[in-house]
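Team,

Forwarding the record for the chain on the shared tracking sheet. I've put the sequence and predicted structure together so nobody has to dig through attachments.
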Amino acid sequence: MPKLLLAGLLLFFSLQSEAAERIKVIMLKGDAFAKLLNNKTYKLKMGHQFDAAAVLTTKDKSILKVQLPDGTLITVGPNSEMELNAKNTRKPTIVNLINGQIRGVVNENLKKENSDHKVLIKTRSAALGVRGTDFYIVHNDQNNITSNITLKGKVDFYKNDDAEILERHQEELDGGKQNTVIKAQDGIEIEDKLKNYKTIKVPPGSFSGAFPSYEAPLEPVRISNAQLVALYETDAKKKGTVYKGDYHVSLTDQKNDILVPTPRGTNVVAQSEYNNQSANSSGIRPGGIVDLNSGIYISPPSNSRYDKRTGLYVMPDDLGGVEASTGEYIPPTGVRLDPVHGFVANEKAYSDRNFKENFAKLKSLTGSFNEKLTQTLSILKQITRLDLYGVGNYRYQTNAMENYYGEWRKITGQPSMIWDLQGHGGFQLFHNQRYLWYPKASIQAYFHERTLPQVKELNQYTGMLGIEFHRKHYLFGRRARLIADVEFTTQYTDYRRRNLFDFYTEDASLKLIERFNFNHINTIELFYQIRSYAGYQDPNHGNIHNAGILHRLYLGANFDMEWTAFHSERREKWEGQAYKIEEVSAHGIIKDILSRTDLSGGYTYQWHKTRKSTERSPFDSARYYKADITLNRRLNNFWKLNFLYEYSRQRAKGETTSETRSFINQTYGGGLTMVF
């Protein structure tokens, strides 16, 4: 009898524990589905309980409300898709909002281990941490906008870098949207981002958004009281009632200028044109409405009435209103708010992935030449797998010389003006959440303006073909990447001094790179490379082994540090000659020292050693020092001006009379860089 009683108690507590780790449907309107760990999809019903790790989807005009094991309430809006993992009630619930809208209500007294956040949320463009207690989040997968409205408590909000947003988008080119239930590593990644200096806190009654091309989330701005009340109450009895302001202004006079962010193909209103009374530092006026489908903020126009009592602007009647029962934005009659194009007539239907539509927009872009070019590149970037990188530099060098696989030689002692032109291209042949196949090519022209024979022979053309294989994985609980990089390079120079470019050297290389993060401020890159090279002379062939480490430290909003340690050993097979290089360097980067201008500077030390066994070894060892400083001015998202100064010196020991290896060199110059 005691054994039966004990078995019964164990079974009871086991069932209670299992029930405590399940999600319960407490309200359902329309159709909603749950995909569980067994990859089976179930149509949900009222009162349904299921595993606390699942993918939830809702259909048109459907709403799903669930209770998580820790008591948190999540409401999933229409046409939404989200992943969540709430199995460990001691840790924050992790949510991946793929598309749509969710509302969460969290117990402010809830405690989680090693975290101030009760719920961690990620989207393609943002990371959010909910401290408590009532919040509303929208993510639109067409425009990559994530918007947050805090109803009660505070929400920490971080915008992902544009490069990460683009990569997440490109991963779907071949992999599609993979609904795999969230892992513990996702929580670590979100927490790391929320420790970044760009993270902001969104207070109650305020809105903020993560918009592509913005450096950080929009500074919080208070929304219309009508929308705030409607979202908070969500009273079904008020369905069909639309809250509107009491001030009239023509919609045709405003068009898309009142939308934040401004849609593509429209001019951005200069901040000086805003009525800055009570606006935030971005010039955005409070009192607007957030569209819960697109995530766009409809800002009160410049001639809106300002209510001193509430500190908000009053939205005009004919800019639409707020559905009283849901808080949704209701646009003016005959108009809809498109996620990409802004206000459009109802009969127009856009497909942002359609090539004809995108290229048609290129013909009707507005703004100055610089704005047109930036907008054109932005659109092209979204419809192609192509990456381009171009550099054009013009420099003055006090001592022209050759860098031969890291060895400084052919030191002329002559000053020269140099054109350095480079073009690099890559194509994402295959890209999903785990793998990237990336064919690439580059060409470089290095041309001295001096006509002296010893300087002219340094002119060179270099071409490269290669392919990279990327394997994405996790290391130390954070995203990491293993890269295998194969390159074939050929170089032509005028070494015969006859105004013709002849074959000079070629090499094939394999480079293995492991890139990972220890935490949110430390990025590490380890690499090993083997190169097999062959020159125009028989002795000029052999193997090169390179290995090193690169460490980048992010020290805050305006300062980064980077240091490297590097070893290189070149062995020539013909005569057994060896050439070794040991290098350490450190650089600091000060960001935005002036408007859109970064300053970097650093110091490099190298120790060179040869095996002096033949006449082709004109020295025993050398010490090389270099100090450099660079100023980069960002013209827009794609173009950058750079200005450079370098001072370098090499002291060689055991030099022969055949060739000097000691030198002093200074370099001044500037140029233009394009990254696409």
